[in-house]
Amino acid sequence: MRRIDQAKLIASEEVVESPTARACQDQSFELPTGVYVAMALMFAGFVTVLAFAFHGSMAVSYGVIFTFLTAFFAIPAIFPRMAREPRSQPLQWNQFLSRGIETATGHTSAASATVLVLTLPFLILCFAVAIATINALV
After folding, report:
1. Domain ranges of the chain
2. CA distance 46 to 126
3. Exposed / middle / buried, residue 118 (Cβ in 10 Å: 0-12, 13-18, 19+)
4. pLDDT, tens digit, for every residue of 70-92?
5. Residues 36 and 101 sit within 8 Å (Cβ to Cβ)
6. For residues 16 and 14, what is the distance between their CA atoms, to the nearest angstrom?
7. pLDDT category, 19, cuts 50, 70, 90?
8. Where are the transmembrane segments (predicted)?
9. What value does the CA radius of gyration of the chain take, rounded to a whole number of Å?
């Protein structure tokens, strides 16, 4: 076996930097469970509003959507449990309110983080209500 010459290896520019650390070591994302529950309820409300608006004529489609929503929340909930090292717990509400969370762009207060996370689900629910209203009026 041939010995590798460090100087030749560096000169050939085949040496690469070691991999950077993962951006998210904590896979609980620090948000309290209540935020995820609110998000899930808004998504489920979206599907429920549409199901009632269209009188369940697309029952199979709504069942598939609920299945995907279940997977959307269940699979990420499994990730922290699969961690080799001791897993961290999500923040409790009082900790979340007093400390906020750290994001890639810096510290975010609890109110800001909650608004950021729940804005899109809320707008999707409002979209369903608007579609249901249009369906009822037309």
Report:
1. 27-82+89-137
2. 8
3. middle
4. 999 888 878 777 766 666 677 88
5. no
6. 6
7. low
8. 35-54, 60-79, 115-137
9. 23
